[in-house]
Amino acid sequence: MDHPAKIYLIGASVRWPAQSLHQARQRGEIGGRTRIIAVDSFGDQDTLEHSDDWHPIDDSKPVGDGFVIAAGGHPRVLNWLNQSTSPSRAAWEFVEDRMNYPSLVQRTGFKLPPTPLIATEDSKHRWLLKSAKSSGGLGIVDAPLEQSAEALSFRDNTNDHLEAWIPGRRWGASFFSDGRRAILQGVCRSLIHHAEDLPFLYAGSYGPCNVTSSMQRTLSKLGNQVVERSQLQGGFGIDFLETRSNELFLLEINPRLTASMELIELAQETSFIQRILATSTDQLTGNAIKPNFPIPTARSPHWYKRVIYGSASGNIAPSRLAKIERRLDGTRWRLADLPSRVTKVDRSTPICTLIETGKSLANLAKSGWQRRAIVREIQSLIDRIA
């Protein structure tokens, strides 16, 4: 199979896709001469190590050669997409348009959170303003309805919108599509970090989790609706919420690789990126292939991914983090997304990521106190700004 000479990974953070692609190249699953070009916001140590070139996404411009994979969320990703990328520009725009959500959830078993247009006048909701130009929870803030509804409801020509906050468990489902159907790869629980005015920052995931066959069917219905309507090809994710009464609410569809997919890939020991390349190559010749990933089982390894945010405003030096990294070497924990230079952080800025493996979710739960100790130690390394 011929692979492109260059592969561009585009997104806010492309660390795990770069590692995945690098490992696939080492295994001979892609050509040894294929160049990995990373374009993201951080340029962390792992990304620099596992890519052949790196560019800051805010200063980058699309190029004419190579194959582009949307490997994370960022407003500039759309500039890189066309009919031959993963996903295509048309598929990305369709999925990103929340006006399509009501028709997508029809007959799937999913509901949508109330919005100013469908909430009754006497409804008492906590309203959230969600920005379409942010990812990872950076664009979600509390918003009083009386101040914002007229300007930022679905009636406006903007993808920023208001919706009601609903209590429940947050999940992230990972899918793969060959452009004809969606294959559920696994489901992880999502973790949230509360930082002052940003109450829903993505703080990691754990899994893969066992879910009911009913939830699997419901997710598959929605995934297939997305693919059927958009012809979306490649990896994509669905963020959703489960209430105490087992109602499922769609929060967001991400037409790209997502952070929790790293845990699914680790459990499967199979490369998402390599599958995207295989599917895209075969589609170009008119022979779409069938994805063949196994859904992780209770016997699969389980993983915990914790994004560590700053506990105060200040600077963090890579040399200080390196000491902890060396100490964790060979244990069940490892650090990822380590900054490549002295970096300014605060309560809404990630320092790095802690990744842990365990034999079961119960096993991971028992080590919670050790994770918290590592997190506190890392946060204590911040040189605070007076």
Annotation keywords:
nine-stranded mixed beta sheet; alpha+beta; 27% helix; 12 helices; 386 residues
Explain what you see:
By secondary structure, the protein is α+β, with helices and mostly antiparallel strands. About 25% of the residues lie in helices and about 30% in strands. The strands form four sheets. It has a nine-stranded mixed sheet with strand order 5-13-12-9-10-11-14-18-16, with helices on both faces. The chain is globular. The termini are far apart. Residues about 150-155 and about 285-290 have low confidence and may be disordered.
Show the helix and strand layout.
Layout: E1 6-10, H1 15-26, E2 35-40, H2 45-50, E3 53-56, E4 67-70, H3 77-80, H4 89-96, H5 101-104, E5 110-111, E6 127-130, E7 140-142, H6 145-148, E8 161-164, E9 169-178, E10 182-195, E11 198-207, H7 213-230, E12 233-242, E13 248-254, H8 261-268, H9 272-284, E14 302-309, E15 314-316, H10 318-328, E16 333-336, E17 343-345, E18 350-358, H11 361-366, H12 368-379, E19 383-384
Parallel strand pairs: 1-2, 1-4, 2-3, 5-13
Antiparallel strand pairs: 6-7, 6-8, 9-10, 9-12, 10-11, 11-14, 12-13, 14-18, 15-17, 15-19, 16-18
